[in-house]
Design a protein that fits this description.
Elements (H helix, E strand, L loop, with lengths): L1 E18 L2 E15 L4 E7 L9 H9 L2 H5 L4 H7 L4 H18 L3 H4 L12 E3 L4 H10 L5 E5 L5 H13 L4 E5 L6 H13 L2 E5 L19 E3 L18 E4 L1 H4 L2 H13 L3 E4 L6 H11 L4 E2 L17 E2 L2 E2 L9
Helix pairs in contact: 1-4, 6-7
Cofactor: Mg(2+)
GO molecular function: metal ion binding; racemase and epimerase activity, acting on amino acids and derivatives
Family: Belongs to the mandelate racemase/muconate lactonizing enzyme family.
Length: about 325
């Protein structure tokens, strides 16, 4: 019999993290644990309830708790896909099921999923939204990192000043930017040439989801990645002709199972792949590393923004973020 436990946990950040929608000083995650009492093994999964998608910690915990009877009655990962919609709650349970399956089988998740053994991948490091001078200082501090992701605020000329400051602080880093739905199509047309001149290689979700049809009729010299507009395979068709890349996050897809299917479908439709994350611990990043193999952009820096991570934690070094040890996940 499989039993379920679920708990909310808070992890403090190294410093305040700000995007166009607000600022925070801590990350609150929900951890689900599935235990096979007979085999004496447990699987873990972590998710981040996100207000942008009308999720709350209490609501996600309630969704997971509502699955307790079905889990006890034999529901598995495959049945879970129909039992819960895509979102944070399903992500925590899906990843816990994968981990439990691996522990039961004595095999790593990548073997169970038919994937090659994962290798370290270079991850972006995110610079929080701030005044240009502060962002330049942050860029100087992290100039050794090969890939920086710059949060912008939808303020036109001020965003350009921020980006110029970051480039001044990190002249050799590859840059990507995240507008967090803060621009209009006019902003994109005006700013894209300027950003290209500063060496930016991609902009993430410049327009609000639901208003991105404006991208369909304009040239996109600066590649555009869908984040809030892309959740699972059901949202993919609406992105054709509007986006060049999709950002796959486990909390949006509802877990690794759908994320792998979305990656395959997106590649077939000609999209490039970014693998991203919410502000979370190494437990949330671990399954995403499997997804990140071969992705054009990897953004799994959540643990680097925390003042304290889980133990054991993922290893980060000059080679990037390393695959998880079984004691953590998978």
């Amino acid at each position: 019999m499989i039993t379920l436990s679920v708990v909310a946990e808070e992890f403090r950040l190294r410093e305040a993290f700000t995007i166009s929608r607000g600022s925070r000083t801590a990350a609150t995650v929900v951890r689900a644990t599935l235990t096979d009492e007979k085999a004496g093994v447990s699987g873990h999964g972590e998710c981040v309830p996100y207000a942008r998608y009308d999720e709350t910690v209490e609501g996600v915990i309630a969704e997971i708790e509502a699955c307790r009877e079905a889990i006890g009655g034999g529901m598995d990962r495959h049945a879970l896909q129909e039992h819960l919609p895509a979102g944070a709650a399903r992500n925590a349970l899906d990843c816990a099921f994968w981990d439990l399956e691996a522990k039961r089988a004595g095999k790593p998740v990548h073997e169970l999923a038919g994937l090659e053994a994962p290798k370290p991948v270079v991850t972006a490091f995110t610079l929080s939204l701030d005044a240009p001078e502060a962002m330049q200082a942050a860029a100087e501090k992290n100039a050794h990192r090969p890939l920086l992701k710059v949060k912008l605020g939808g303020e036109g000329r001020m965003d350009l000043n921020r980006l110029r400051a970051v480039r001044g602080g990190a002249p050799d880093a590859r840059l990507i930017i995240d507008a967090n739905e803060g621009w209009s199509a006019t902003d994109y047309e005006l700013l894209a040439p300027e950003f290209l001149g500063l060496g930016v290689t991609m902009v993430e979700q410049p327009l609000p989801a639901g208003k991105d049809e404006a991208l369909e009729g304009i040239a996109r010299p600066l590649p555009v990645c869908a984040d809030e507009s892309c959740h699972d395979r059901a949202t993919l068709d609406a992105l054709s002709g509007r986006y060049d890349m999709v950002n796959i996050k486990l909390d949006k897809t509802g877990g690794l199972t759908e994320a792998l299917a979305l990656e395959h479908a997106a590649r077939a439709e000609g999209f490039k792949i970014m693998v991203g994350c919410m502000l979370a611990t190494s437990l949330a990043m671990a399954p995403a590393i499997l997804l990140a193999q071969g992705a054009e952009i990897v953004d799994l820096d959540g643990p680097l923004l925390l003042s304290q991570d889980r133990e054991p934690a993922l290893a980060f070094d000059e080679n990037g973020i390393h695959p998880a040890e079984p004691a953590l996940w998978g």
